[in-house]
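Quick one: structure tokens for this chain, please?
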Amino acid sequence: MSFDSFAQAQSAFLWLTFAIAFILGAVVNKTNFCTMGAVSDWVNMGDTGRMRAWFLAIAVAMLGVVLLEYFGKLSADGAFPPYRGAQFIWAENLLGGLLFGIGMTFASGCGNKSLIRIGGGNIKSIFVVLIIGVIAYFMTNPFPGSDKTLFTVLFLDWLRPLAVTLSGHQDLGTLVAGAADAVKARLIIGGLLALAILVWVFKSADFRSSRDNILGGLVVGLAVLGAWYVTSNVVIKVDTETHTLVDYVQQWDFLADSDAGKPADSRPLSAQSFTFINPMGQTLGYATSGFKHDLLTFGVMALLGVIAGSLVWSLLSRSFRIEWFASGKDFVNHVFGAVLMGFGGVLALGCTIGQGITGVSTLALGSFITLFAIIAGSAITMKIQYWLMMREA
């Protein structure tokens, strides 16, 4: 997708993102695709239907990414956030994943599910998203009049020293075969892993008979893949040369006629796909800036698209319902969960979608750690909650 100007290319980049997110929001609402619900069904009832839908999405996205990379249509090496970065922040992935898993259990859903519920009329989720947004924003942006962030104050000194600096990228292909043969190795590893997941997913007769679970997993996986494709292939043609949006912004003074329309940061124009915690902070920053165009990013459009898609489906299906906190305890649980998701999602570089599907599709080692930490954090929390409930009874 080649365009003659940065403005045209950026507009396509943002509106195609919104369109894919809109479909994602509508289908997730329609099918009740829910990662926290997947863990709950498995832990509390032994039902793996929604867990299989989640892993179907992972397999579809993973297989698509390794194929597109093999044919030169996508590169996740320079993605935003840097899933394959040489700095292997395993402790942050682990702690962040655990915090996020615990948090989404208390808040009755992950970041994506909170957006879906806002579109369905859930006022509780507005509080959750606002709290996550504030924490995510100040985890990555300094306090007013300071150079300190929540991350540097609370986590940097004791977590970052545990990071391991690798000689290359942290994806399984590079780790196994080295940089020279990483693409081919990713195709083999990703293909085999995706195939194994698909065999497990469709081994269940109950899952094969569930149209909603199949549709939800398939569409979520394709949406993640579609966003990867769009953000990797929107380019600007200048004379005989082609530039990515990131490259164009970094060479703005040489390529553009004026500073008009220049984004505040080039990183959000990198190849990327859906994640929802940091974008809540981005959306807060965009809103509090007075909706400055240079702060309008992929993440903001993804967030708005998911809410809009969910809202439209809620209205069409007549399932839109205003929902408020059931009690003071319900309010406290949601606030506590939102706080943990805000910290955990930024520490781990993503959520159940952002790391659990998008990150894992890149075969990044940190993404796998985060995925399993989220599931473990949520499952352990549910077990403890059940034990406390039985004890009280």
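The radius of gyration is 20 Å.
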